[in-house]
Amino acid sequence: MFSAVKLAVMVDGCFWHSCPEHGSRPKSNQAWWEAKIQRNVERDRDTDRALAEAGWAVIRVWEHEPVDSAATRIEALVTDRRGLPRSGNPSRKSGSPSL
Ligand SMILES: [Zn+2]
Asked: How far, in Å, is the centroid of ligand 1 from the Cα of 72?
């Protein structure tokens, strides 16, 4: 978590979060796995939505993703969000002196 810029980084396991490249299902008990993994994916979306509503940006990194590729994405978003005006912090200089 990068709390200064409200950025949450999630690392998703390929199997458990149904990665497009490696999200294959086991051959046995297919329906059971399908339901179980589907629930995980839905929970991911809920988490994303809850965070977004609280003003957080969410980056999801796949387990298989190279670290530097993930780092580049995170860095870009951090830079991006640093440029945004802080909503919680009044930025006006008039009034009480700043510390
Ligand atoms: Zn994967």
From this structure: 18
